[in-house]
Structure formats: structure tokens, C-alpha cells
């Protein structure tokens, strides 16, 4: 491979204590000097035995599996998918997480806009592209630009249950958004439900996972940097956590 012709675009947000998502990480940073003391205790030495009394730097991170950029597994949505036990993140085929990227741009839509099937069809027509099984669908809302702002979890356009179901029927196994969640913001859903309590409002797109197996990538970033809507690869391999509903990931778009 000629690396001079290779461009890789980072599509992830950082794990950062300043992030304004509802469940930000806690990160304890330990210095090289603290690392020397830590190593000394393990090895029966003194911290000063290490050159300059310094050894390893280390961080202790406390977070949920849904903090930062991550991939949701079917187990996140419900205990069963199509009547069978839902799979956890460690049980999913790696082949799902490397494929052709397809970008849908809803950055001009207002927070809370619910993306419908016809919205997706219109953009595909504009792109002159037909979705193929195992394409990785990316939804741009530009919510990542507000990752460090107080209202971050409420600023994205979301995807409807019908549009989610339609994507699955097209053979899409992995679909992602740069918003905090795949659905419209939960605050909008809650306000709607309080006015008119009924099924099909709360977490509606996620619950499509009860019917058919699929994965969501949430909290993507930098989708505005993609130079074209399709014609590149996306890699988004989730961390392997036994029995988990999600795994952290560092997705990238690969252009050759």
C-alpha cells in the first residue's frame, strides 16, 4: 500500500472529563513519579531505585460502556431479538464492522428533527447511490461540535423507528450518528410522552432491535470532514467486553 495516497479520518470523540454528555468519564491521571512508587510496592523496591525516581504513567478510567464513541449491541435494546436471546458485543461478527461508508447529511435540520424513510431516499437519489447489504451508514447532524456544551445530549436530529427498520431491511447491520443517541433526543421524547402517553414514543428506534438484529454507533465525530458521501471504507471495531451491551470504539474512514 502506498501510504502517501492513504488518508484516515478519525470519526471519534475523545474520552474527556470535560465532556457534557450525561455520563462523562472519570479519569485519574498518575504521574511517572507516582508510577515509580506503584512499581516499587509490587517489586519490593524503593521509588528512588528507578532512574530519576520515575517509572510508568498510568490512568484509571471509570465510565459506562456507552460513554464516548461506542457501538451498541442488540443486547442494549432488549433481552430478545426476534424471539431469540439478543447477542452481546463480544458475540457479534467482526465482518460487520468493516465496510463501505455511506454518509447522510442532516446537519441543516433542527435539534429534535426525526429523520424519515423519505429523507433517506431523497439523499440516496441525490447521491445516485443504492444501499448495499453491510454498508455502514453514517448520519451527520454536527452535534459533535457541541460535545463540550451543556446541552450536548439535546442538540441532534434523530432517526425514526420506521427509517431504522427500513435500513435494516436494506441489509444494514451497522448504522451510526454523531449525536448523543440514535433516536431524537430523549428530552423531546419524554415531553411528547407526557402530553400523550402511548407506545412508540420512548426509545422507539432503539426498540426496533427487538424485531431484527443491528448495531448503532453513537457519538461519532468529524463527519463534516468526509470529502465524499460514499466510496471509502469505515472501520469501527468495538472493544471486546464479555456479556456487554456496548463496546467503545475508535471508528475511522479510510480513503485510498
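-> sequence recovered:
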Amino acid at each position: 500500500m502506498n501510504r502517501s495516497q492513504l488518508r484516515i479520518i478519525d470519526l471519534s470523540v475523545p474520552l474527556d472529563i470535560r465532556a457534557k454528555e450525561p455520563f462523562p468519564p472519570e479519569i485519574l491521571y498518575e504521574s511517572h513519579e507516582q508510577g515509580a512508587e506503584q512499581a516499587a510496592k509490587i517489586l519490593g523496591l524503593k521509588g528512588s531505585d528507578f532512574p530519576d525516581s520515575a517509572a510508568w504513567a498510568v490512568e484509571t478510567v471509570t465510565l459506562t460502556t456507552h460513554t464516548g464513541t461506542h457501538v451498541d449491541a442488540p443486547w442494549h435494546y432488549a433481552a430478545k431479538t426476534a424471539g431469540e436471546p439478543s447477542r452481546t458485543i463480544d458475540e457479534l461478527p467482526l465482518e460487520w464492522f468493516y465496510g463501505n461508508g455511506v454518509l447522510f447529511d442532516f446537519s441543516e435540520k433542527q435539534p429534535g428533527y426525526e429523520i424519515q424513510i423519505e429523507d433517506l431516499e431523497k439523499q440516496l437519489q441525490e447521491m445516485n447511490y443504492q444501499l448495499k447489504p453491510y454498508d455502514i451508514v453514517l448520519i451527520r447532524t454536527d452535534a459533535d461540535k457541541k460535545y463540550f456544551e451543556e446541552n450536548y445530549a439535546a442538540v441532534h436530529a434523530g432517526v425514526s423507528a420506521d427509517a431504522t427498520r427500513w435500513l435494516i431491511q436494506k441489509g444494514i447491520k451497522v448504522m451510526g450518528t454523531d449525536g448523543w443517541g440514535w433516536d431524537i433526543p430523549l428530552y423531546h421524547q419524554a415531553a411528547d410522552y407526557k402530553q400523550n402517553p402511548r407506545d412508540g414514543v420512548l426509545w422507539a428506534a432503539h426498540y426496533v432491535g427487538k424485531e431484527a438484529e443491528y448495531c448503532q454507533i453513537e457519538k461519532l465525530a468529524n463527519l463534516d470532514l468526509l470529502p465524499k458521501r460514499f466510496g471509502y471504507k469505515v472501520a469501527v471495531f468495538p472493544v471486546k467486553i464479555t456479556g456487554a451491551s456496548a463496546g467503545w470504539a475508535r471508528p475511522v474512514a479510510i480513503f485510498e
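The helical segments are 32-43, 74-77, 117-127, 161-169, 186-195.
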